[in-house]
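ok new one. same drill as before - structure tokens go in, u give me an amino acid for every spot. 216 of them this time. try not to just spam alanines like last time pls lmao
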């Protein structure tokens, strides 16, 4: 098989260097793992010279962090999405289902790659976790506000602006984390899909009951 020649990319690709580098890095990180994927490999696959890569990213750790940040940004981009349903429960079920389907489908491989390097690069893993947590909280907080507009007017309630981030994290912990963990340990998307409606309905009911207790 003829290898792609390294060095300066064609003129029609030159302006897309950061995106091409991130695409190549993500593919190799997922295929080989963080340690085994080299800058040389990324340079060849992109294609982009090593000086070009280092001009945009200080090193492999920064490149991995950028891949994660881009992935999380895509996962938490719910622009144009509005929870559907006649009741708050229906809207939260629609939201919870959308979150689980998106994250389980698109983030499992990257989460595995991060976990695999957590002992060798604990700071990298913490940065990945913090980035994902911060952006997920912000996105879900806004979506919860949209789904619970009337309830959010209560300044003491869990959906009030001062408490919305914490409430969003609780929602994620209840609904996303169990399904994500099951996916990580090998359960198939088809098996999870069968259980998802009942699972989300149960968790949303628990979430709303806890919120009502919080208000009382």
């Amino acid at each position: 098989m003829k290898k792609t020649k390294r060095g300066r990319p064609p003129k029609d690709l030159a302006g897309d260097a950061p995106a091409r580098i991130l695409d190549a890095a993500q593919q190799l990180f997922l295929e080989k793992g963080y340690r085994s994927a080299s800058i040389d490999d990324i340079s060849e696959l992109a294609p982009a010279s090593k000086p070009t890569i280092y001009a945009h990213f200080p090193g492999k750790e920064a490149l991995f962090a950028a891949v994660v940040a881009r992935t999380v940004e895509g996962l938490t981009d719910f622009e144009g999405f509005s929870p559907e349903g006649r009741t708050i429960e229906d809207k939260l079920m629609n939201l919870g289902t959308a979150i689980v389907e998106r994250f389980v489908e698109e983030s499992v491989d990257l989460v595995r790659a991060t976990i695999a390097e957590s002992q060798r690069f604990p700071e990298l893993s913490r940065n990945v976790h913090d980035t994902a947590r911060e952006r997920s909280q912000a996105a879900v907080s806004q979506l919860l506000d949209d789904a619970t507009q009337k309830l959010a007017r209560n300044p003491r309630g869990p959906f009030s602006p001062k408490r919305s981030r914490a409430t969003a994290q609780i929602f994620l912990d209840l609904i996303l984390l169990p399904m994500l963990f099951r996916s990580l340990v090998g359960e198939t998307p088809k098996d999870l899909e069968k259980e998802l409606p009942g699972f989300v309905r149960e968790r949303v009911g628990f979430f709303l009951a806890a919120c009502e207790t919080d208000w009382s």
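The chain has two domains: 11-57, 67-215. and btw Residues 88-116 form the longest helix (29 residues).
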